[in-house]
Amino acid sequence: MRYEIVIGLEIHLELQTRSKLFCSCSTAFGQEPNVNCCPICLGLPGTLPVFNRRAIELAVTAALALNSEVQLKSRFDRKNYFYPDLPKAYQISQYDQPLARGGFMAVEYEGESLTINLERVHLEEEAGKLMHAGDSIFDSDYSLVDYNRAGIPLLEIVTKPDIRSGHEARLFLEDLRLLLSYTGVSDCKMEEGSLRCDANISLRPPGSAGLGVKTEVKNMNSFRAVEMALNFEAKRQELILTDGGVITQETCHWDEEKKETIPLRGKEGSSDYRYFPEPDLLPLMLEPAFIERLNSSLPELPFRRRLRLREEYGLDKKEAYLLTENRDLGDFFEEAAKGYKDHRNLAKWVQGDLLFQLRESGKTAGEIDPKLLVELLNLLDRGEINRPVAKELLAEIVQSGKSPQMMAREKGLKRISGRDELLPLVEKAISENPDAVESYRQGREKAIAFLVGRVMALSAGRADPGELNRLIKEKIGN
Ligand SMILES: [Zn+2]
Description:
Structural class: alpha+beta
Distance between the termini: 73 Å
Bound molecules: zinc ion
Strand content: 15-25%
Shape: elongated
Radius of gyration: 30 Å
Helix content: 25-40%
């Protein structure tokens, strides 16, 4: 590419409150359309919005986690535009006095760390949801509107134009989602629309300080789509510029089917929205003690936790990274580590077999008692069960939450070991397979493996193969 790519993101995040930002309507997802609506949501005459304290707490928490400077005084404004998803024909948002200014996030990037600076973090209300009949928004006969979502508290995070590729945008978003889900401010579900992202993208000659004309890309429904859409849009702009053309400032729609960006309309400037202070709300004044309280109750954030996991438990970089991928999994590991001292072995089981079983069953680590895994690993370490049995029992632990000690006893899964227990099985296998015995005596070592397999089958997998190998050789050896 002959140009440098310049990307800034606007992220919208639904905050995890039970009621909306300015009224007591429920924020529950997936209900009948238009049941969670009231005259305040609809902005009917005579109604007044009232702040949801919880939404402000969550917004401030997110701003603090993003190193953004929370303002003691901020203000709400009306952003006026006419569109069917907006029942009041204006959205209560923040314009020139946002909740928090600046901030940054460090992104881990192939062993290096990349810092993305933030412009601002502000609070606003969510719009309703439009559903277009037909295959695409370019040819629908009619549209339906659901106002359940209108008025849900929405956090807008605006980055500075610090991102240089679609790939970097994706890495930033992945780390942002991790950070915000750690703080519990949002469930960050892109598929349910609680995390959305729009991007501004422009090109400039390498080394130049100015910014080129930008386009805005919308409708990207996954992190993968963000990466693809931005790469596509950068190429589209490059072709125009290389041809001597000019970029028009406009909004583009990402078409997931065709994998291309399609220019939709001229981009509005902020003057098009006729912002003015919301007359129904006083400015938001925060006490320093309120901010301090939220700051001190911030959980340990993923970046810090990775470092601590490595120091405290002797894990390597990759292990620490995997264990911070969600908060539950790290909590599970640390709880189990209290009762089990081989931390590397524990980490392997958590990231490997446990994670696999969790995915299979659709459960989270928070639903499983860490003590059960400790019990299982102790059984295995003491040699009372073998590895295949341990794996089998782990699946049951995740399914039913039963004690592995009890299950091993009930099912007779404990390992068979010792000469007295194994010898009858070995003798049975030898007498049933004279050909294999003969073949071993003629010098074919491989025949042993076959006999070991026979005894393993007779013991239902509970014998130790090493021990069997020795015993069989002793019985049939010359
Ligand atoms: Zn309402």
